[in-house]
Amino acid sequence: MIETLGEICKITNTIVTIFLAICGLLVTLYAIYIGIQFAKAQDETARSNAKKQLIYAIIGVLSISVIIAISNGVMPLLRSDTPSEMDELMGAKETYVALSYIINLTCDLFLTANIVFAIFTAWQFMKASDESKRQNAKKALLYSIIGSVAIVMVNYIGQIVFGSL
Predict the structure, then answer these.
(1) All residues at 6 or more sequence positions from 37 whose CB lies less than 8 Å from its CB, including other chains
(2) φ and ψ of 123, to 5 deg
(3) How do residues 84-98 score in pLDDT, each as one tens digit?
(4) Range of 28's domain?
(5) Domains in the chain: how many in total?
């Protein structure tokens, strides 16, 4: 069972990495497209709109980058798959490692869903045609970042609780 959960975690991480690479490529292509629109703009209104879109694209990318940094930078630091000596003496090694994998897998899945949501809302933020849509997308991005922090905290608390069993 433990090997299966570990393999699921690895597969999930691989899928997320591939997905993020594709999204990074798409956002880069979008930024290039906006840059071309900015360079080709003849009048001040078109140039101003392209400049705003480029700024919004950068804000969207930064928001997603924060979530990815939380996912890839903070989460691995909180993972603890090795039980203490007391756990081994009490025969709790298998249970502890299984619970640890379940917590990690669950948090990975929620973070993956959160990253997909953040990418979607960042795209809405970048492409919003009016200010009310942009404000809604901005709020959704903020909630996504808060959700990422909450997922990290759940993982950390779970590791503490199951680590003390």
Answers:
(1) 46, 50, 53
(2) -65, -40
(3) 444 444 455 566 666
(4) 2-163
(5) 1
